[in-house]
Each structure stands twice: as structure tokens, then as C-alpha cells.
Amino acid sequence: MPPPEISKRVLDAKLEACKFAFLKLSAVKTTRMKNYKQLRTLLMLKEISRRGADRDFLKDPENSVTRILCSVLKQVVSNSDRSLKSLRGFQYETLDDQEKQQVTRMIASVQGMGSRKYEPESVDHLEDMTEPVEMEIYLGNGDDSVGGDFGDIVLEPISWPLESQLNLEWVETLMGLINQFTWKNSVSEFPLILPHSVAFSLVECASQILDKEANCVKIDCCSENSRVIVVGDLHGQLHDLLKIFDQSGRPSQNQCFVFNGNYIGRGSWSLEVFLVLLAWKILMPENVILLRGSSETRISAEELDFLKEICDRYGEHGPMLYSKCIDCFKMLPLASVISNSVYTTHGGLFQSSRVQEDSVNPSLWLGSLDELDKIERRQAGENDDENITLNHVLWSCPWMADGLSESNYKGLLWGADCTETFLQQSNLKMIIRSHEGPDARADREDMGNMLSGYSIDHEVESGKLCTVFSASMFSQGSRNYENEGAYAVLEPHNFTEPRFVSYTVENVPRLHHQIISDGSSTQQQQMWENRTGHGFASLGISNPPSWTVPLPNDPSQILQLREPPQVFEGLPLPDTIQEPHKSNYNYLFRLISALKQEIQTRV
To answer: 64-78 vs 36-52: helix axis angle to the nearest 10?
Structure first.
């Protein structure tokens, strides 16, 4: 056995090299990786560093080697959040399914690294380790010789915990699995990740919690370190929700989230958004407040094809899950009051039941918080239109004219004078509502356009009225608004001065049926078949017109195009097609041929 001083000198030299390696590893930008194997190698090296910290000799704070290594490891831990964000921003399109599963497992590993604290009683903070350098390195080819293989790791479906006791790790795993699923673009595989029994349990367990809450939830913020995040409409855009969590942090004892409704909508991932939020509600019922939006009604859900979305994922189990979601919608509270100062709701103000008795000045007869608490929201849902107050809460909108009046839909229109009256009578300082995005404000020149994700609609003596919308790059029909999403941050001591954080989430995965490629004849043919209900083949048309227009490579060839063909694609039609359909198809195919010839000539 060598003398202790020689052994220590050798260890010092080797661990000094480890210090340099750890420093570089913690500074790597994973989004610049050239391929998946490099990313895998990086995560393996970081996992090795984590395991190395468990060695017994590292527990001695007097060891100089220990101080160096622990300082490096502490920095790795402190940078785990940045590494996690980089991993979640990794471009998954080029990966196959197995590689995507491995990346998901790596994300969980980094989360585990961040949760460990390698802090001995005394650590020397080295000057050259305070700021990690930003660099890009090549970590080898990632083959088995580099130090191990993750090929034996299999991604298992998430299971419902015993006694329905969710923990943070379970919820984080759920979010990671669902995020990974969205990149697979195969909705039929969703039960392989989240079995229907787990989805049922999520909805049922959350419904029991929501059922016990008042119509207007009171949120008391006593701690000086506490803050509240208010989130607007998400409309099924899961990656906006994940972006908010990454930017603002997760719900915690010192950070409460209030969601103003419209979880389902025109995005690709309405069910996923709703299930993730329910999981957080179960985990932290006092710190995650889920309010009801205008989309969370049976009628709106039908208009948004929410049943179809669920059935696309769960097949024969879809109708049952849909029914449970509709019942859960009825349990969602309608409003919240934050620190006795800020009122949040989805739509806005509502009429008092006494308004019919006095028509002279209806703005003085706005509904009160006491009246709001008396609404029986749990029995609404089958006939939401019959609950006038509920409709007002979900559908009302502000405008610039004074007074309170019926809108052309289910809600009310109210002016700044009504905002002042409500704030004064309720002893509040601010209203934060949602419900309107850039589409709703496009034709309302008197109101903010919501392109930044928020607007200050009324400023009165008692306070303000704000609108927040959290679905970035929102699409309505064929129009894309290229708007930012936003959320409001309320902090002590003055919760009435919100800080709005705007963001944009681009290049997110969407379902195939929502993507139309300009140059894909296959997708356009599928779109045609979906709209007509059957394909040309079922009509006996074996040579339907193609949906592409060939163009000459050389512009000089344009004048040499041949005359319009005498034989048209799709013709002659089979005798099985009867009139007047036969004449219509004949005209259609000749028209398509003429249009293609016109495009060739003009281009």
C-alpha cells in the first residue's frame, strides 16, 4: 500500500481532472448537440458524476479533494434547471420512438440530479468556477464503448399511485410523458402512456376536491415570499402551459397558480392540458386554483369536438371519460379573490337578480360576491343557458361605453363605471379576467388588441380591469394572429400592481389532421376524402386528378407548353355514376385541368 501522501497526491490529480470535466459538462448547451447520441453521452457523464458524489471519502469536509469536487458538483446541481430547460427544448422531430423514450428518461435523471444537495459543512468556492463558460463540445459517438448503454431502459406507462397519494415526482413524470407523446403524433398510442383507468382516476379524484370549494375561492397570501401567477385561456395549447411552468416555476407553498378557464379549445392537446392541471390540483389543492371558462360547458365542449378528441385517444372508453370531464367542469369554481384585493374570473361581471326591479340605473345593481356564492354551479351543465348568472360570469366582456347591457350572445357588456362600482362595493382594487384573445379583439378598435397577451381595459379611481390571454400564436379558422401569450405575476406587498410576462411558443407539435402542407398531394387527397366522406375509388374512378402542378425547371420552357389535353384526368367516368352527379364530376375534372394549365402558363 503506498504512503498516504502519495495516494492523496494521485487522488488530487485525478479529481482535479474530474473538476475540469464537470465544469465543462455543466456548461454544455444541449440544444446545440449535433445528434441524439451526443446528448445521451452527456447525460451518462452527468449521471456518473452524481453517483461519484456518493462515495464515502467525499463526506470528509477536511479533504481538499473533497472541497474541489463538491464545489464542482454543487455547480452541476445549481445548473440542473438550465439543463432541464435545454432538454425540453431539444428538437425531437429527428428522433425515432425509442430515442424519444430515452430522452424522456434522461429528463427524469436531470430532475433527480437537481433534487440532490451535495453541500458539505464547509466548501471552498473557487474563483474560476463561479461563472460557467458557454461552449459547444463533441462528446463522442455515443456507442457502447463510451461508458454504457441506455438501450435496456424501457418507458413504462404511468400507473395510479396507491391510495391516490400523488407526489411531485409523479406529476413531473406525467408532464414529461405527455410532452413526449405530443411529439409522437399518434393519438392511438396515448393509452400506452396514460391508461384510461389513470385518466378516470385523475378526473374523479380532482372532482371530489373541486366539489368542496366555494364558488369564489379566497386566496390568502401571508408570506413575504409568496406570489400568485394568474393564467388566461390556454385553448388546448399544452406547450404554452409547459412554457409558463418553465418560466415562472412550478406551483409550491410560496407560489400559487390561478387558471382563469378555457383549458379546452382549438389547440391539439385539450385533454392533455386538462389532465395535467387536474394532477397539479390533486397534488397542491390549496395552491392551484382552477376556475371554469366558457369552454368548460357541455354545449361548448360539443362545439369544440372535445368528445371526438377523447375518443381518438381512448376509443370505446372515450364516451365515459368525456362524461366524467363534463361532470368535472360543473365542479370548477367561478372566481377567486387574491389577498382581499384582486378578483379573478373568466368572463367578468354579472347582473344582480334584483336588476329587474329597477331599470333607472342598472349599473348600481351589479351582482355582488355574496350573490355569486349562492349560485348552484354543480347542477348547471345540462342546461347552462338557463342559468343567467352563470352565463354572465363566463361570457361577459368589457367595453368603453358606460352602463350595463345585454350583448349579442350569452353575457353582458359593461363599462368603466360598472368596474368602479363593483370594485368599490366589493372593497377590491383589481379585476383580472380572460375570455378574449386577439380574435375577439380584432374588430374592437376601442379595446386593446391582445397581441401582447394582455391589456389594461379600464382604469378607474378604485383600481384597474385587466384581460390576460395565455395561448400564443393563436389560430382561429384560417387566420393566424402571431400573438404572444401572457400571464400575470402578483407579488407582495402590493398585489394590485401585476407584472405581465409575455412569451411565444413556436414550432410545437400538432396533430397531422391539423397540418396542411402546400406541396403534399397525399395530404390534400386525404383532406378531399375526409370532406366528401369517401374517396374517388369508392365511385369507381381509378384515375382521379392529381393535386400537384408540374412546372418546367427552365423558365424558357414556359412558352413551349403543350395545348390543353384532350384526355382529362378522371375521365371518362364509369357508368355506375348517375346523373346529375355524372355531369358535375365531368365539369369538375375539366375545370381542374384548365386551372392547372392556367397556373403553368402564368407561373
So the answer is: 140
Residues 468/434, Cβ–Cβ less than 8 Å: yes
Contacts of 535 (CB under 8 A, 6+ apart): 525, 528, 529
Residue predicted with more confidence, 14 or 338: 338
In whole angstroms, give the CA distance from residue 168 to residue 171.
5
Query: Which DSSP state fits 164?
Result: G
Residue 544: CB atoms within 10 Å: 17
Alpha-carbon distance values, 458 to 336, 398, 425, 433 (Å):
19, 8, 17, 12
Long-range contact list for 451-454, CB < 8 A, 24+ apart?
Answer: 451/481, 451/482, 451/483, 451/484, 452/483, 452/484, 452/486, 452/500, 452/502, 453/232, 453/483, 453/484, 453/485, 453/486, 453/487, 453/500, 453/502, 453/503, 454/232, 454/486, 454/488, 454/500, 454/502
Reported as a pLDDT band with limits 50, 70 and 90, residue 526 is very low
Residue 161 DSSP symbol: P
* Cβ burial 512-543 (10 Å sphere, 16+ → b, else e): eeeeeeeeeeebbbeeeeeeeeeebeebebee
Of the pLDDT bands very low, low, confident and very high (cuts 50, 70, 90), residue 181 is confident
Can you state the angle between helices 97-115 and 64-78, rounded to 10 degrees? Answer: 120
Output the nine-digit C-alpha cell for 384: 347552462
* Model pLDDT, residue 538: 63
Q: Biggest alpha carbon distance in the chain? A: 102
Q: How far is CA 146 from CA 45, 98, 140, in A?
A: 9, 19, 7
Taking only the tens place, the pLDDT of each residue in 543-573 is 777 666 666 555 444 444 444 455 677 788 8
Looking at residue 317, the DSSP 8-state letter turns out to be G
CB 500 within 8 A of CB 453: yes
Torsion angles phi and psi, residue 251, rounded to 5 = -60, 140
Cα end-to-end span (Å), the chain: 84
Q: Which of 93-107, 281-295, 512-526 has the lowest mean pLDDT?
A: 512-526
The percentage of the chain sitting over the pLDDT mark of 90, rounded to a whole number, equals 39
- Pairing, β 464-468 against β 430-433: parallel
The dihedral of CA 512, 515, 516, 517: what is its sign? Answer: negative
Render 490-554 in DSSP notation, one character per residue: E-SS-TTS-EEEEE---S----GGG---TT-HHHHHHHHHHHHSS-GGGGT-SSPPPS-----SS
> Angle of helix 270-283 relative to helix 168-184, nearest 10 degrees?
170
Q: Positive or negative, the Cα torsion across 119, 120, 122, 124?
A: negative
- The three cell numbers locating residue 330: 360543473
Q: Beta strands 479-480 and 499-503: pairing type?
A: unpaired
What CATH topology corresponds to 174-354+364-503?
Answer: Purple Acid Phosphatase; chain A, domain 2 (3.60.21)
Say what the pLDDT of residue 53 is: 41
Cell numbers at 411, concatenated:
353575457
Average confidence score pLDDT of the chain:
74
- Rounded to an integer, the average pLDDT of 508-532 is 46
474-519 confidence digits (pLDDT tens): 988 778 888 999 999 999 877 888 999 999 998 788 775 444 333 3
- Rounded CA-CA distance 142/38 in Å is 6
What whole-number distance in Å separates Cα of residue 70 and Cα of residue 59? 9
Residue 286 CB coordination number (10 Å): 13
